[in-house]
Amino acid sequence: MSAREQWVAFLTIVTKEIRRFTRIWPQTLLPPAITMTLYFVIFGNLIGSRIGEMGGFNYMQYIVPGLIMMSVIQNSYGNVVSSFFSTKFQHSIEEMLVSPMPAHVILNGFIVGGMVRGMLVGLIVSLLSLFFTQLSMQHLLITITVVILTAALFALGGFINAIFANKFDDISIVPTFILTPLTYLGGVFYSIDLLPEFWRMVSLANPIVYMVNAFRYGVLGVSDVNVYASLGAIMAFVVAFYLLALWLLQRGTGIRH
After folding, report:
1. CA distances from 52 to 60, 165, 189, 190 (A)
2. Which of 53, 63, 133, 175 has most Cβ atoms within 10 angstroms of its Cβ?
């Protein structure tokens, strides 16, 4: 395929993915908005008023960046894992693979579609947060970079999960038993500096800690970890996951039997 044809194929997949989740917006965009609003009310207003300040900010301001990142992570991942597995289940992925379309075009289309949903939900949650607290963007470039890289990373994670999934139950195992615990233990609701030294060191093995803190630094200007080391780690994970996902797709893992 020529470069122009590849570009058209890529845009077609991305458009299909965006239409898929916008068509059913009451299921894809509304629930995370309601969930995060409940977090703002319960943790921010009710519990936060008793906790006081954290990191030099009131508790609501402190947790908002983490909650935004949580929504980006969950929706980038969830969009791709459900969409690509459905494509496998319906055997329409086989039509893509036998076409002249290169594997990287297929992969990029699904990943960008997932990123768009993740970042759109993140934007919705950000706008909702303004009804509860004031946010000032301290480092705009870092904020945007972290959001894009994190959305890409978890969209790739969702793609890899969908490749290995054999039934619909399999696509819920990773979010339930890995993603959710790592997110809640990733410094969304607290500073890891408050933990005893042993548990702080354990927390540093959680990759979501670096994403949440890098984003919090971009918004509030505070972080529990080195921001540039965090960005480097996230980029390394994105490259590794991309190469793995591309290799699995080219081999037809979980698709060709």
Report:
1. 9, 44, 13, 12
2. 63
